[in-house]
Amino acid sequence: MSKIEEALKKAAQARQLQRIDSTLTDPESVKIIPPSKKPLEKSLLLRNRLVTLTAPQSIEAEQYKKLRTQILQRTKPNFQNTLMVTSAIAGEGKTLTAFNLAITIAQGVHETVLLVDCDFRRPCIHKLLDIECKYGLSDYLTKNIDLAKLLVKTEINKLTILPAGQMPPNPSELLASEKMKNLVKEIKNRYQDRYIIFDSAPLLPTTDPSILARQVDGVILVVQAGRTPRTDVVSALKLLEGINVLGVVLNSLDVISPNYYYYYY
Ligand SMILES: Nc1ncnc2c1ncn2[C@@H]1O[C@H](COP(=O)(O)OP(=O)(O)OP(=O)(O)O)[C@@H](O)[C@H]1O
Ligand SMILES: [Mg+2]
Question: Taking the model in full, what pTM does it have?
Answer without folding.
Answer: 0.83
